[in-house]
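User: Teach me something about this protein's shape.
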Amino acid sequence: MSIPEAFADDFHRLVTEAILHTNVGIFDWDLEADSIQHSATLKTVLGYGDDEQPSKAWHEHIPESERYQAMHAMRESITNGKTKYDGVHRIIDHHGASRWVVVKASVLRDRKGEAKRFVGALIDVTNLQKDRN
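Assistant: First, the predicted structure itself:
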């Protein structure tokens, strides 16, 4: 769907508002530099305040006992030519609380097919998990 140029700024503002109010955090993992940028909402999901910088990447909040399997699945998407990643993970936030998140990501590749970025959304579904149990 193409957005008319006159509405592009308005659309960007509306998308930003929607993201801020839905517990959806955005991340951008530059695979070459091995650096990750987090949106403000993602910082909140991870338990950090506005004035705090995350001391570790979102995937490092996955409990140690579950991290290998989660990282293996992400790396599999990155190295095997896939363009998408979907996962559900338990994380431990900055304050030690257990949370559940859905991760939806895209693997961005250059013209040679080399993975350059892993970008996506982390959706806090903790309350839904609690309701299921």
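Now, about its shape. The radius of gyration is 16 Å. Residues 24-132 form a domain with the Beta-Lactamase fold (CATH 3.30.450.20). If you'd like, I can walk through any region in more detail.
User: That's plenty for now, thanks!
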